[in-house]
Amino acid sequence: MYSVKVGEKSIVVKSDDSGITVNDQPFHWDMIPSAPGHFHILHENKSYRAEIEKAEPGSKNFSIKINGKRYPVQVKDKIDLLLEQMGIQAGAAGKVNALKAPMPGLIIDLKIQEGQPVTAGDPLLVLEAMKMENVIKSSGDGIVKSIKVKKGDSVEKGQLLVEFS
Predict the structure, then answer these.
(1) Domain-located, residue 84
(2) DSSP bridge pairs for 134
(3) Do 47 and 101 belong together in one domain?
(4) What's the whole-model pTM score?
């Protein structure tokens, strides 16, 4: 699944064995490369010329031209969407703002204290879920502003666990 923002319009694109859907509607098209970064597209009996003008794969930002009109495109994949749900912003230049529970579970250990600086990869807490211990690590740099849970707390998916400053 992908969340795609084209200009100010957001769409959800899914692909599986049955095909592609855009905003839960089947999407049928033919696309043929005509030159590097250039494509000829047929959709609903209409022809389109597409060109990838600029591609920044790291940030998943693109600039494309369709029939001569330029569109900024930003793509979020499953990982980006999951990080967003957890309160971790993937493109926040390595700075973490908040951590939310990725799944329901039990807090069995806290590895941090309020006021403590953390860097990407530092262990923050241990969450037991489905009889497995999951070490939740920091996705970026920050300072622990407040810890919203304590050892022994049960948490729900999406619950705020830690805030950073």
Answers:
(1) no
(2) 127
(3) no
(4) 0.51
